[in-house]
Design a protein that fits this description.
Blueprint: E1 3-7, H1 12-22, E2 26-30, E3 44-47, H2 49-56, H3 62-67, E4 69-70, E5 73-78, E6 83-88, E7 100-103, H4 104-117, E8 121-123, E9 128-133, E10 138-142, E11 147-150, E12 152-155, H5 162-167, E13 175-186, H6 191-195, E14 201-206, E15 211-216, E16 222-229, H7 236-241, H8 244-255, H9 262-267, E17 274-282, E18 294-296, H10 311-328, H11 332-362, H12 365-385, H13 391-394
Helix pairs in contact: 1-4, 1-10, 2-10, 10-11
The protein binds flavin-adenine dinucleotide (FAD).
Flavin-adenine dinucleotide (FAD) binds next to helix 1, strand 3 and helix 10.
Length: 407
């Protein structure tokens, strides 16, 4: 049985582990922190139907649908409070499942718990620092001084992947987008009624000084995120010394320039559910995804803009595809090459779509003004066309059946 060492217990890590287990390999997950989701980056995730359908191949979609809630409509409005349009987020799977939203921490914990329940071995506080190919496989070294040998090493270690750099020291690094993200949950379950917010709808506001998104969960909690443009990366000291209250005040001030509920929502968010500011990154095209026995999946290989709502789905699609390649092609190097062949074009198309949808959040000055003026027109046009122009993204289905390979 081939032993697969998976670096990272985020999204791609546990899903790759479950897929490899089902494919007949022996997976081990090594996570740098003492628990999944130790770094709270972003409050919640929207998981698209293509990702849920790939998870269903592993009977793992219930992890999202049981804890998350359906979110099938996007609604856009301007800083003056004018409603621009509503549009669907993806289609509906044959069993009626639609796009779901789930708290990031809940999703990480639930996926890793499910992988553990199925028998995947985990090592926490295990940070990969280097790895070398040996004649027969790979030997990985960790920050705690230990080493693990395996047949294949899979880097599911996120946008600042160490595995990517080990495979190709010249690989591109994550690039700061000029945006801080923030988020939170309003636990006062009466506020949404007071503000007249519509449950089940994901609302986005093109604010004058910040972009704001929120939804009302079925229990009345309001979930929100905000993007504020900033010229410099957050230094560690500034990040650590800024309190939740200071972040809240800064954001409320920015959002007070707009009409609508954003400033009230942020002001009502308690400290313990407030996700403080964090830098947002993207990743230039990574030309090398693998060598003979090491490979990258998920954000380590490609970072899809958060505005596309496809990062999780791409990670899940990668994981399942990689597992079928390793199951069906005995030679590891050929299996890794087949995985890249099957994923690259799809992923690059989604990344390009994500870059288009996020440009409005990062641009500044005249660019931002133009985007603000033109966005309502494009959004209305897209809403008229419904979800159809994005069918290529949402209707994509991974197969668990053996495929024909050219390698
Ligand atoms: C603000 C924000 C909002 C987003 N919203 C959405 C959304 O709504 N929908 C969506 O689909 N996607 C969204 N995304 C994207 C999504 O979060 C990512 O695509 C997804 O988390 C990728 O999963 P991953 O497992 O590849 O990486 P990660 O989730 O980053 O997990 C990587 C894991 O590897 C571990 N690790 C790192 N280095 C090492 C090491 N050296 N050794 C061991 N372990 C290591 C980390 O601790 C972490 O647990 C959003 C992203 C952001 C930033």
């Amino acid at each position: 049985m081939k032993k697969a060492l998976i670096i990272g217990g985020g999204i791609a890590g546990p899903v790759t582990a479950m897929a490899l287990l089902r494919a007949g390999l022996e997976p081990i997950v090594c996570e740098a922190y003492e628990e999944a989701a130790a770094e709270q980056i972003g409050a919640y995730l929207t998981v698209a139907v293509n990702g849920l359908s790939a998870l269903a191949l592993l009977d793992a979609h219930h992890v999202v649908t049981e804890i998350g809630h359906p979110t099938s409509t996007l609604s856009f409005s301007t800083s003056s409070g004018k409603h621009i349009t509503d549009m669907p987020i993806g289609g509906t799977l044959p069993d009626g499942t639609v796009t779901h939203s789930i708290k990031r921490r809940d999703m990480y914990r639930a996926l890793n718990a499910e992988a553990t329940r199925r028998g995947v071995r985990y090592e926490y506080n295990k940070r990969l620092v280097s790895a070398v190919s040996t004649g027969s496989g790979v030997s990985a070294a960790f920050a705690d001084g230990s080493a693990i040998e395996a047949d294949v090493l899979i880097g599911a270690d996120g946008i600042r992947s160490c595995t990517r750099e080990i495979i190709d020291p010249a690989a591109p690094k994550a690039h700061f987008l000029g945006i801080y993200g923030l988020g939170g949950f309003v636990t006062d379950r009466t506020l949404h009624t007071e503000l007249g917010l519509r449950p089940g709808i994901y609302s986005m506001i093109f604010g004058k000084k910040a972009f704001f998104g929120y939804l009302v969960a079925p229990d009345g909690e309001i979930w929100w995120f905000a993007n504020m443009p900033r010229s410099q990366e957050l230094s560690r000291s500034a990040g650590e010394s800024t309190t939740q209250a200071q972040w809240r005040d800064q954001l409320v001030e920015l959002l007070s320039a707009d009409r609508g509920p954003a400033a009230r929502i942020v002001a009502a968010t308690p400290d313990d559910t407030f996700v403080p500011g964090f830098d947002q990154y993207d990743l230039p095209t990574v030309t090398t995804w693998h060598n003979d026995n090491m490979v990258i999946v998920g954000d380590a290989a490609h970072a899809v803009a958060s505005s596309s709502g496809q990062g999780v789905s791409m990670a899940v699609e990668d994981a399942v595809t990689l597992a079928t390649c390793l199951r069906d092609i005995p030679d590891t190097a050929a299996a890794l090459a087949a995985y890249e062949d099957r994923r690259r074009a799809r992923v690059e198309r989604v990344v390009a779509y994500g870059a288009e949808t996020s440009s409005d959040k990062a641009s500044s000055g005249l660019g931002r003004l133009l985007v603000r003026l033109l966005t309502p027109y494009f959004l209305k046009k897209a809403a008229k066309a419904g979800v159809a122009p994005l069918n290529w993204m949402f209707d994509y289905r991974i197969s668990w059946e053996p495929q024909r390979f050219s390698h």
